[in-house]
Amino acid sequence: IAGGCRVLQNHVLTHIEVDGCNDSQSAAEGAVLGLFTYDDLKTKKKTRVTTQLHGSGCVSGWEKGVLYGEGQNLARYLMEAPANHVTPSVFADTITNRLAPYADHCVCVCVCRSQEWIEEQQMGAFLSVSKGSEEPPVFLELHYNGCPDNAQCPLLLVGKGITFDSGGISLKPPSGMDAMRADMGGAATVCSAIVTAAALNLPINIIGLAPLCENMPSGKANKPGDVVTAKNGKTIQVDNTDAEGRLILADALCYAHSFNPRAIVNAATLTGAMDVALGSAATGVFTNSDWLWEQLHKASVVTGDRVWRMPLFQHYTRQVTDCQLADLNNVGKYSRSGGACTAAAFLREFVTAPIGRTWTSQGDDQ
After folding, report:
1. Element (H, E) at 188
2. In the chain, domain spans
3. ∠ CA 344-194-164 to the nearest 5 degrees?
4. Please, which residues have CB within 8 angstroms of residue 175's CB and are 6 or more apart in sequence?
5. Phi and psi for 214 in degrees, rounded to 5?
6. Model pLDDT for residues 153-163, shown as the tens digit of each residue
7. What pLDDT score does 51 carry?
8. In sequence order, what E strands does 55-184 have?
């Protein structure tokens, strides 16, 4: 960060003036992201530092960059917080409170769907994951109407919201399990994006869906070999209870189609197999739409968040449909081999092409 600084008499830095360097939006975003820390539960907290634009740069660009950074930090805050402090209900309340200022203008509507509603929707896959926990599930539904007078179909965002993932009966190894408090990263990203869209007053209509629950082992939890029924009537053999994200997303994707969206974008910490495939260099993207892939790729070039298209071959679909007891298996026939690809093939069974949009594939084997 370039520029001068002001200090108090005790020499504690509390204020930074940032030189916009002719790109005040990027400077602001970087400053806000760089200053983030989660120390809410510590007695001794770090000194809070604020920033303001100094020197060259556009003030409106700076303000926009601050909102970009704050939106990302909201997602980081939700993912960093302990799972006993961010339960499904607390997650929903946090987002509802952040959107409250915009709800007064009828721009945003937050609906926290209860377990009773989830049961009425016959979301058997979602319910099967949540039943192992003492925490009740929440289906969070957000509506941002940036074009209320526009008949444009909404962009629909779906985020995986497992607020803690123990693996269920297929228990994860203890090492690193604490990081599974962030297994709702997809929901955190989706909801924070909508909060940011409202703050920026973007001229677009967006609907966000976040199925929220914990995946815990108990006498009520899914057992390997159990069969559950998703909202669209398809039966699923649950051979690995740690492949739970695709179960809750299956029902959310089915429900998403009721809004006739122009496109559905699903974000999820779905499987470690993606990290094995790409590491931290890029985000893996599976899509049955060349048009949507082109939009995502263009956006990644602008933001620097690189994406890489992954295959949706029938080869992977056959691995989840070749099932002993049900229509689908929640894990691929060859276990970890191509795990990210079989996870995407599973979710594809709950998605249909939006009306009015031409979908094309990558090849005859798609």
Report:
1. helix 185-200
2. 5-66, 81-348
3. 55
4. none
5. -105, 155
6. 899 999 999 99
7. 81
8. 108-113, 138-145, 155-159, 161-165
Q: How many CA atoms lie within 13 A of 48 on its CB side?
A: 4
Contact (Cβ atoms closer than 8 angstroms) between residue 192 and residue 99: no
CA distance linking residue 358 with residue 360, whole number of Å: 7
84-112 per-residue burial string, b: 16 or more CB within 10 A, e: under 16: eebbbbbbbbbbbebbeebeeeebbebeb
* Phi, psi of 190, deg, nearest 5: -65, -50
Q: What is the pLDDT of residue 12?
A: 61
- Tokens 């360097």: give the residue: 21
**What residues are paired with 144 via a beta bridge?**
108, 206
339-348 vs 245-256: helix axis angle to the nearest 10? Answer: 30
- Asked if 133 and 213 touch (Cβ cutoff 8 Å), the reply is yes
> With respect to CATH, is domain 81-348 assigned 2.40.50.140?
no
Antiparallel, parallel or unpaired: β 235-238 and 263-267:
unpaired
Alpha-carbon span 276 to 278, nearest angstrom: 6
pTM, entire model:
0.92
Q: Do domains 5-66 and 81-348 have the same CATH topology?
A: no
Strands 138-145, 205-215: pairing is antiparallel
Catalytic residue numbers read 172, 246
Q: Which amino acid is at 26?
A: S
Q: What angle do CA 273, 277, 283 make, to 5 degrees?
A: 90
**Rounded Cα gap, residues 235 and 125, in angstroms:** 9
Q: Match 């504690």 to its residue by tokens.
A: 12
Residues of the chain with pLDDT under 70: 1-13, 55-57, 105-106, 150-151, 335, 353-366
d(CA 208, CA 196): 13
User: How far is CA 300 from its chain centroid?
Assistant: 17
Residue 79, pLDDT score: 98
Q: In CATH, which superfamily holds the domain spanning 5-66?
A: Leucine Aminopeptidase, subunit E, domain 1 (3.40.220.10)
Q: Which residue has the tokens 């209860």?
A: 114
52, two tokens:
């303001």
